[in-house]
Amino acid sequence: MSPDPFRPVLPADFRWSAATSGFQVEGSRTADGRGRSIWDDFLEAPGAIKDGSTADPSCDSYRRTEDDVALLAGLGLDRYRFSIQWARIQPEGKGPANTIALDHYSRFVDALLAAGVTPFPTLFHWEMPSAVEASGGWLSRDTAERFAEYTALVAERLGDRVKHWYTLNEPAMTTLQGYAVGTLAPGKQLLFEALPSVHHQLLAHARAVQVLRASGGVQLGLPNNHTRVLPLHDTTEDQQAAGIYDLIHNRIFSEPLLAGNYPDLESLGLPAMPVQDGDLAAIAGSIDFYGINFYNPTTVTAAAAGSPIPFDIVPTPGAPVTDFGPEWPIMPSALRDFLIELHAAHPQLPPVIIGENGAAFAEPARAGYVQDDDRIEYLSGHISAIAEAISAGVPVQEYTVWSLLDNWEWAEGYTQRFGLVHVDFDTGTRTPKASYHWYRELIARLRGTGSASRF
Fold it and tell me: Which residue of the set 26, 127, 170, 388 is catalytic?
């Protein structure tokens, strides 16, 4: 028997959403003249993808939009977070728009609106044209301007109907995993020399916001991956290690957006940000909401002497884990505490949107109903944590489940399943899991009692 739905105390206008990303679900790799992306390059490297798979056809969502819209409407969601692939719109990362691709996304927006679901697209979900990376990628300031040009092409076509936008997804993961240690595309291993990519991503976000506001956008922001950092031991060394990791995973992104400055990097021997006049003012004034993707806390301890990195990430003592193992501990209270601490550090915190929250658990590959009580427990625990944070004064306005569908999970391939809906990747068959029905009932019950209402 699945856990009973619960009734957390949430604002009357609290909103509900679910998310996917284009590269992970669309398939149809070359259907509309889409160009090559950094993930096409990355997945071809021997051993880069755990199961040796590719993202095509994955969920085949490019061709099965009606199926996905029906699932979204069935949940009773307020919004759907999906992403637009830059390499579909600009196959070489510059020049005029690919109108075939824009036609596709335009039809999809219309289908969502017809179903009563507000489209909330992401313009960059880790997918960059290979040609842009070849010109420097996020290590180059010019990429911010190229991203603004791409944004203008999308906004010109969709801005009459789309008013809510995410710019870049999880810049922390792009910097730390994509450029610092190389476990995600583009696969660089620059360690702390990757940090300039932080500033260029935030600058790209600010440039894109200027474009979107000019096209009538009304709610604009970016969702960063955040984590509550815990020292393994209550020692000066571990506290210092936790502080450094908190700086490069959380504060280096939050403080420019919320306070207009970067934390002190040079005192720690880290590279200074390549800031030019006007950059920080543009970044600080660029968000209408603060987006947070949250999955787990991170426990660190001081690294051994001589290590090029002053911290080691270790298992969180006593915490259960998802199918990812020790690197993804389950601790809903960490989300509550992170939100409360962020609000204490920034009392003028703008409205907060949880842009992703979810968990992967082992499930059958073949089509069929999945009684995923572990996922229901994970989601209910984190929604309760959000309710507690709201009671403490944190202005959280929206919650987004990752993910609507099982999908191609980046370097993990098809080995990790996050979906509310099971996908048989051989046939494309979609089967709502127990968590899908639980989420639908939760939304309906809260609305029915007046605890929540549609946006």
Answer: 170
To the question of whether residue 266 is assigned a binding role by annotation, the answer is: no
Side chain identity, residue 161: R
Task: Residues 15-448: name the CATH superfamily.
Answer: Glycosidases (3.20.20.80)
Active site residue 133: no
Average of per-residue pLDDT values in the chain = 95
Q: At what angle do helices 434-448 and 65-75 cross, to 10 degrees?
A: 50
Beta strands in 352-452 (DSSP E): 352-356, 396-402, 421-423, 430-432
Domain layout of the chain by residue ranges: 15-448
> Catalytic: 170?
yes
24 is in an annotated binding site: yes
pLDDT computed for residue 6 by the predictor: 54
Does the pLDDT at position 274 exceed 90?
yes
User: What would the two tokens of residue 362 be?
Assistant: 């082992």
**Predicted confidence (pLDDT) per residue in 341-395, tens digit:** 999 999 999 999 999 999 999 999 999 999 999 999 999 999 999 999 999 999 9
CA terminus-to-terminus distance, the chain: 32
- 36-91: pLDDT as tens digits: 999 999 999 999 999 999 999 999 999 999 999 999 999 999 999 999 999 999 99
Claim: this prediction has a pTM higher than 0.90:
yes
The DSSP string of 56-98 is SSTT-TTT-HHHHHHHHHHHT-SEEEEE--HHHH-TTSSSS--
How far apart, in Å, are the Cα atoms of 81 and each of 72, 162, 226, 288?
11, 12, 18, 17
